[in-house]
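Late entry, evening session. Most of the bench is empty. Finally got around to the prediction I had been postponing all week. Sequence below, unchanged from the version circulated by S.P.
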Amino acid sequence: MPAIDPVMVEERAMAFARRSIKGRAKLDGLKLILSMIDLTTLEGKDTAGKIASLCRKAIQPAEPRFHVPSCAAVCVYPNMVRAAKRHTAGSTVKVASVATAFPSGASLLAVRLHDVRMAREEGADEIDMVIDRGAFLCGDYQRVSDEIAAVKEACGPLHLKVILETGELETCDNVRLASDLAMRAGADFIKTSTGKVAPAATLPVTLVMLEAIRDFYFETGRRIGMKPAGGIRTSKQALAYLVMLAETLGDDWLTPELFRFGASTLANDVLMQIVKMHDGRYQGADYFPLP
């Protein structure tokens, strides 16, 4: 693959953050962002009660008078999938589950595949897997590709999001190569990060991945989804990602079926902005339930 100039990537990505979006276009953008969020809780202290609260927020993020959409999905560990499915039943909210020894990916393949099958049996709609970054950085690309293909097979009809953990891949060239490798191995989405490693999602890294998706689409005609995850906390940041998405891949990708935000704190900031545009004043963060 041709080498990527990280300075030019940074310059172009930062240009998207300087765009000004106002009025009706901003309101529409905020509601679109909300519909693209995977509300996430991946903590050792997760309980069935917390999952129930997360699902309620995903289904109805704000009072009906604000006319906001439901979030795209809730993302949980495999042992919490059944509870999430129970509380999202009858709604449009999907249940995604991290798997494959999340977040390290450092386990035997048989164990990781069992993780996927467990999440599938519990009722997950989507699987978020992590690649073995150690194998990738050692240059064992065939192993990484084979493992993604094996996970895709274990997923069956479920959508597979492949997490690259870009904060550990070190260079833009590696991000581009890992993106291409994941798509060719069967990924339905490629995702920046687990949210457990810094830096997580950034505009430059996401731009590299979007351009990989664009080139793959031109070559194969297959649309791959994109999910920046971790570190996106404000509406202003999220709107910059939408601008970059539209200008890189076009309006066809401006849908939850092809673009997601992996975030939790982002939802409340988006809601605060929507309420401000609706009522003319800000409400404090305490007026919105924590995810």
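Two things to note before I forget:
Strands lie at 37-40, 73-76, 94-98, 126-130, 159-163, 189-191, 225-227, 261-262.
The mean pLDDT is 94.
Will write this up properly tomorrow.
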